[in-house]
Design a protein that fits this description.
13 helices, Rossmann fold, alpha/beta, 38% helix, 325 residues, 2 domains, five-stranded parallel sheet
């Protein structure tokens, strides 16, 4: 298992020049002043392998955490630990959802967009930076003088629980992580008892003409496949980081789902209604039966990347699929 892995991803040329200049200053800073927590005893040190297989070592449990991906926000919400900062304004918007931190998110700093602002990060002096594998891997070496980078990835409920448990260890909140994991397992078991394998379901966050669908290889799709008929396989389509993919209108018409759920930003509450009025979508069984539903950020927390948002998503979907007693 490697302890260092600094494979760089392509970046914009202007960003590369900025990184090179700032990285020199960061390394000098690291040599001149020890990182926060360096004086802690060895017994407090924590070493865990992240999703890339790289072993990340902390001198003490992390408390000041920067999130570069929504999966980090999801986990910290489960641990009742507000992030120090996020790496993009959209992450800050999601963090304000009542699914995560609500009004408490107003204290979260924004340190980038689309790339993290290294000078801002340095000024915050975080203990840990959490990102997503395949997106910020190439920044590990540059970020090292600021804080260790821990990478996550998620494509199943089991992996979401494992991510929660790992961050629980990194923050000395293992008990809280296990309690949250058990709460999720209990809710999932409740939904499994109400499974409806004869109902064909579609979950998308797309707009007219471009429909990004949660595939069976994603966290959402793999979990729903055990509860309903969920036939949306990735196949040879190009996946997003969390294994969503673009499906054509023709493919959706061919499958003709019974129920459709559209994830919509809080700023676009009428998206599902607009789709329902679309001449092509009007031919779908779900639309004809009034089974096209929108799911807002406030209700489900945006794109589902962890146990917190998955719980809310499943609650919302199964409530609409299960008739009232």
């Amino acid at each position: 298992m490697p302890t260092q892995s600094f494979t760089r991803l392509p970046c914009r040329q202007r960003f590369q020049r900025g990184l090179l200049t700032l990285a020199t200053g960061l390394w000098l800073t690291a040599c001149q002043s020890p990182p926060v927590g360096e004086m802690t005893t060895p017994e407090l040190a924590i070493a865990l392998a992240d999703a890339s297989g790289t072993t990340v070592t902390l001198p003490q449990p992390a408390d000041r955490i920067v999130c570069l991906h929504l999966s980090c926000i999801d986990i910290l919400a489960e641990l009742d630990l507000v992030p120090l900062a996020v790496g993009h304004p959209r992450l800050a918007d999601w963090a304000k959802s009542p699914v995560y931190f609500g009004e408490a998110a107003s204290q979260i700093a924004i340190v980038g967009g689309p790339e993290p602002n290294l000078e801002a990060l340095l000024g915050l002096r975080p203990d840990l930076i959490i990102g997503y594998r395949g997106q910020v891997d190439g920044l590990r070496e540059t970020l090292a003088p600021i804080a260790p980078l821990f990478l996550l990835e998620v494509s199943s409920a089991e992996q979401a629980i494992a991510n929660l448990q790992q961050v629980g260890q990194l923050t000395d909140r293992a008990a809280a992580a296990e309690a949250a994991a058990q709460t999720f397992r209990d809710r999932l078991a409740t939904h499994q008892a109400q499974a409806q394998p004869d109902r064909t379901v579609l979950v998308t966050n797309g707009t007219q003409g471009t429909f990004y669908v949660a595939t069976r290889e994603s966290l959402v799709g793999s979990t729903l496949a055990a509860l309903v008929d969920y036939p949306w396989s990735l196949g040879d389509r190009a996946p997003s980081a969390i294994n969503w993919a673009v499906f054509s209108t023709e493919h959706i018409l061919q499958v003709d789902p019974d129920v459709i759920f559209v994830l919509v930003p809080d700023s676009e509450p009428a998206l599902a209604a607009a789709l329902a009025q679309d001449a092509v979508w009007g031919n779908l069984t779900a639309v004809k039966a009034g089974q096209l539903y929108d799911l807002s950020d406030a209700e489900v927390g945006g794109l589902t990347t962890g146990t917190r948002s998955l719980s809310h998503l499943l609650d919302a979907i199964m409530a609409r699929l299960t008739p009232n007693p």
